[in-house]
Amino acid sequence: AGGGERGPQMSVIPQGKYRINPGLFKVTQVQVTDVPDNKVGIVTTREGASLATGEIAGPEVPGHNLFQDPQAFVNAGGTKGLQEQVLLAGRYFINPMFATV
User: Fold this and answer.
1) What's the whole-model pTM score?
2) Origin, by domain of life (predicted)?
3) How far apart are CA 95 and CA 101, in angstroms?
């Protein structure tokens, strides 16, 4: 769900202190995604448009901050499934309900 909709949200709240009303929201903590040096992260998304017939992986789409902004990914026409774009070594805040690495 996007902001303002019921259900799990696509956005991730980064580390820090927040005042969140537990009567209105349930917050689940998840691990950050670390891609080690000399490795790449293969991304599979669970949201977006369906892949075109005959395609194996979704094409790169701009503006989603390396899968850390799921709503921007979907709005830019991102597709479900395996992605052509990979993640290089580093730390990423990716919603595990949106994508796996």
Assistant:
1) 0.86
2) Eukaryota
3) 10
